[in-house]
Amino acid sequence: MIELSPILVTLKLATYTTIILLIIGTPLAWWLASTSSKFKVIIESVVALPLVLPPTVLGFYLLLALSPDGFIGQIWSYVSSTPLSFSFTGLVIGSVIYSMPFVVQPLQASFEMVGKPIQQAAYTLGANSFDTFRNIVLPLSSRGFLVAITLGFAHTVGEFGVVLMIGGNIPEVTQVLSIIIYDHVEVLEYTQAHYYSIGLLVFSFVILFLTYSLNRKLMVRI
Amino acid sequence: MIEVNYKYKLKNFLLDVSFTMPESGITVLFGPSGSGKTSVLNLMSGLINKKNAEINSKFIINNRVIDDSINGVKLEPWVRKIAYVFQDHRLFPHMTTKDNILFGYKRCESKLNPEELIEKFKIKELLEQFPEQLSGGQKQRVSMVRALLSQPELLILDEPLAALDYKSRQELLPYIECIHKELDIPMIYVSHDIKEVLRLANYILIMDKGMVVDQGDIADLCISQPLLTQEEGASFILEATVTQIVEEDKLVELDCGEKILITAENMQPNQKIRLLIHARDVSLCLSPPQNSSILNCVPIRIDDVETDANGKLRVLAKIGKQTLVSLISHRSARQLKVEKGRDMYAQFKATAMIK
To answer: Nearest chain B Cα to A121, which residue?
Structure first.
């Protein structure tokens, strides 16, 4: 009655998205936190776009970009012969863009909280920029990372509009939890919809609960 | 010799400093707030570095070039070997005292012994504590040890005591003197507090509106810059060594080239102290008076006589190798025939002691 595959696809998608976002988002957030470049505001706005845009708008343009003739699709064709649209990879790309602000913004805020003065102190003690980032900024930003990981992951799990536009609802490939709930509701299978919905509800609560308690512990230490 | 030259566009004015400072002892950078003191320190430590703001720079510590705009040298802050003690301590909040003080130590080939400094700065009990558990004075002590253990060739202290209360300040001063006496690292020290300056400085740089307007040894500058001591008329400094404690009279006998007595407590023999004496408290006479309540009467030789801004005569004289200043009236000068090269006696009460 309950299929496992949407759950697995959802978890896989959220995990991949979060990892990729940490890899891209950390240097981006670091740059945003430390630059005085005039491009900063432009990049900040672009990163924040998914917060205000309807997911369908984002999904629509991603659909165009991911198609074999689209901007990303063409680049992809050099790497792989399989098309991007309606694939898991395409879904990951969409999720990364869609969840970007939820990772970049908390990281940027926590890097800014660490501040220049303490880094300057590290410099004068013989630590170069990377050393300072690794040993001063990163540990002092642990709460920012916790929030970024949680929000990035949870937000990807809860994604609907973008997935609907670019995922194609292919079982075991791109069919995620939010979509299958929608499918069940459409054909009036409320019982199944309930199972998935309650599951997601509990899961989201537990994640947030764990995060906030861990956050408190970290706050006490730093 | 440490040579510092910077011409740099700051937000409100042009910073244009050029000075040399001795490679040992404490050089105090003194001046009103907003005169550019901290900017000078930040330039020296490489912490401000806007390419189009710099007009020229040349900074050399004992033949080691740190900055040289002509030859395109600009060392990164982490290779300058210039440690910094900030007003706001800037200890790393996620590290214990121990990890804090070893941060710089691990990153240089330091020959210093951490144990020794831990002992000297009395921070052994604090080693396992985090910065937030420390008092203001303790934080600053840890911050000094942290800076020293990175074995710097120059130590910058930017008003390290300004954020502390009076008591903590008094407790910390001896530690700063200890750095000077035992480690012999040149220090540049920024302060607003004239008492601190008079107590610590060996050499003074006076800054105003982005420029160094005067510089010299503390004793010379006290005499040539009466405003420095914020006293009416002039004051001067005498360096002296405690030779004897006279318990029953609560007096201390000092040697400053001549023997003098001061009222003081808590002194030890051989302790070096610095006296600040107002020139108006020094009177001159031709022979030592027989019946006087003033204890100190020392032979001097007149060096120079000049009229000061208030029409009084400023007499500069040698006491041992040091300079003494007396403010007297024209009439007294005529009666006593005060002139250059004359041997006389100076009488003064010395109670204004700095350390």
So the answer is: B90
Cα B245 from Cα B271, distance rounded (Å): 11
Cβ contacts of A135 on chain B, cutoff 8 Å: 103
What's the pLDDT at B227?
Answer: 59
Q: Distance (Å) from the C-alpha of residue B69 to the closest C-alpha of chain A? A: 21
* Cβ(B105)–Cβ(B150) below 8 Å: yes
- Of the pLDDT bands very low, low, confident and very high (cuts 50, 70, 90), residue B232 is low
Question: CB–CB of A121 and B45 under 8 A?
Answer: no
| Length of chain A as a residue count | 222
Domain membership of residue B354 (yes or no) is: no
A127/B103 Cβ within 8 A:
yes
Among the partner residues A118, A126, A140, nearest to B90 by beta-carbon distance: A118
Residue among A124, A131, A135 minimizing CB distance to B82:
A124
In total, how many domains does chain B have?
2
B187-191/B154-158 β-pairing: parallel
Q: Residue A97 belongs to a domain with what CATH number? A: 1.10.3720.10
Number of domains in chain A: 1
Place of tokens 């006490």: A220
In this predicted structure, the answer to whether residue B349 has a pLDDT above a threshold of 80 is: no
Q: Is B78 in the same domain as B211?
A: yes
- Domain of residue A152 covers 5-221
Domain housing B326:
235-348
Please check whether residues B268 and B314 belong to one and the same domain: yes
Q: Is the pLDDT of residue B309 over 80?
A: no
Q: Which residues contact B65 (CB under 8 A, 6 or more apart)?
A: B59, B71, B73
Q: What is the mean pLDDT of chain B?
A: 87
How far B92 CA sits from the closest chain A CA (Å)? 7
Average pLDDT over residues B30-54: 88
Q: Which residues of chain A have pLDDT under 50?
A: none
**CB-CB contact of A180 with A6 (8 Å):** yes
The pTM (predicted TM-score) of the whole model is 0.81
Mean pLDDT, rounded, for B297-325: 85
Residues in B touching A122 (Cβ below 8 Å): 92, 103
Q: Shortest Cα distance from A124 to chain B (angstroms)?
A: 5
Share of chain A above pLDDT 70, in %: 98
Compute φ and ψ for B120, nearest 5 degrees.
-65, -40
Cβ contact A128–B93 (<8 Å): no
